[in-house]
């Protein structure tokens, strides 16, 4: 692939802090895979585009990488991908926000 077609992938500080706060996740692997996968055709890499009730990242691309949901935007003009947030894939928050599954209990 031509180097001119590759995107630069950057993580916001907030997203990085969140990633490294997750337990039982290979943080370095998720970070490296995001760099590898999202630098080539980042729109095509998206699993879906966020469109959920009361979700602050509606319109952003979502990609599941090793049980972490990566939330990112793409700027075609500057050839940059910015990871804005991430969520641990095994939480009730992700089930409710991304899949509409309400946890069977009300207290966490």
Describe this structure in words.
With 108 residues, this protein is an alpha+beta fold. The chain contains four helices and five strands; from the N terminus they run βαααββββα. A five-stranded mixed β-sheet has the order 1-5-4-3-2. Strand 4 (68-75) and strand 5 form a beta hairpin. The longest helix is centred in the N-terminal third of the chain and has 12 residues, at 27-38. The chain is globular.
Q: Note the total helix count.
A: 4
**Shape verdict:** globular
Structural class label: alpha+beta
Strand order within the widest beta sheet: 1-5-4-3-2
Low-pLDDT parts are: none
The proportion of residues in beta strands is: 25-35%
The percent range for helix content is 25-40%
Radius of gyration: 14 Å
Distance between the termini: 47 Å
The ordered H/E elements are: EHHHEEEEH
Whole-number mean pLDDT: 87
Number of strands: 5
Major beta sheet, specifics?
5 strands, mixed
Give the arrangement of secondary structure elements.
Blueprint: E1 8-11, H1 13-21, H2 27-38, H3 42-45, E2 48-49, E3 61-65, E4 68-75, E5 80-88, H4 92-99
Parallel strand pairs: 1-5
Antiparallel strand pairs: 2-3, 3-4, 4-5
């Amino acid at each position: 692939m031509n180097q001119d077609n590759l995107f630069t992938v950057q993580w916001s500080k907030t997203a990085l802090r969140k990633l490294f706060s997750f337990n039982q996740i290979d943080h370095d692997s998720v970070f490296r895979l995001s760099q590898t996968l999202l630098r080539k055709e980042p729109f095509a890499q998206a699993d879906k585009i966020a469109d959920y009730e009361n979700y602050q990242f509606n319109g952003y691309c979502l990609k599941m990488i090793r049980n972490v949901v990566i939330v990112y935007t793409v700027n075609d003009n500057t050839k940059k991908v910015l990871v804005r947030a991430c969520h641990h894939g095994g939480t009730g928050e992700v089930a409710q926000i991304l899949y509409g599954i309400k946890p069977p209990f009300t207290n966490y």
